[in-house]
Amino acid sequence: MSKLLKLYLILGAALVLGACSNSYSKRYIFTGESDHWEAKYIYNTTESKNSQNSQESYELILTYKKSIEDLSSMKELEFSLNSNGIDDKVKKHFKEPSKEKTFSFRGESKGSYWIGEDESIKVNVKWDGMEESFDLESASK
């Protein structure tokens, strides 16, 4: 059998097996900002075609838009995310002044979240006696 024929057979088999995959992945990115903060929420899901099981991972990247010196007295940063598929609240405590303006929070779950591309995610941030709320919208809109 010629090498070219073997190559075509291998490529054909790979295409057939790929088409028979039992799962598919989606990735959504949501962005938004307020006067002091901007945020990016990255949501990845792998869903099975044959059942309701899914595997999700997510990351929120929260960035302070003003001077780092403004955060020197911050003892606690609290934020919440709310939408049809999310209801999370996180607190981060600081013993020393933050040296960073960007804070990243990650997580994984199995079958407990569902976020669609058209979702709007409400973000509420509290720090140093201040509070701001804003919405994250799909970056692909």
Protein described:
The chain is mainly beta. The chain has one domain (22-138): Immunoglobulin-like (Sandwich), CATH 2.60.40. Helix content is 12%, strand content 52%. It is built from one helix and eight strands. The protein has one helix at 3-19, and strands spanning 23-33, 37-48, 54-64, 76-82, 87-93, 102-110, 121-127, 130-138. An eight-stranded antiparallel beta sheet has the order 5-4-7-8-1-2-3-6, with no helix packed on it. It is elongated, with a radius of gyration of 21 Å.
SSE topology string: HEEEEEEEE
Shape category: elongated
Helical/strand content category: mainly beta
Largest sheet: 8 strands, antiparallel
CATH C-level class: Mainly Beta
| Proportion of helical residues | 10-25%
State the distance separating the first and last CA atoms. 51 Å
| Rg for CA atoms | 21 Å
CATH fold-level topology: Immunoglobulin-like
From the coordinates shown, what is the CATH architecture? Answer: Sandwich
In percent terms, what proportion of residues is strand?
over 45%
Lateral strand order in the biggest sheet? 5-4-7-8-1-2-3-6
Tally of contiguous helical segments: 1
Give the number of domains. 1
Mean pLDDT: 83
- Low-pLDDT parts are none
Number of strands: 8
Brief description of this entry?
The protein has 141 residues and is mostly beta strands. The protein contains one helix and eight strands.
What order do the helices and strands come in, and which of them pair?
Elements: H1 3-19, E1 23-33, E2 37-48, E3 54-64, E4 76-82, E5 87-93, E6 102-110, E7 121-127, E8 130-138
Antiparallel strand pairs: 1-2, 1-8, 2-3, 3-6, 4-5, 4-7, 7-8
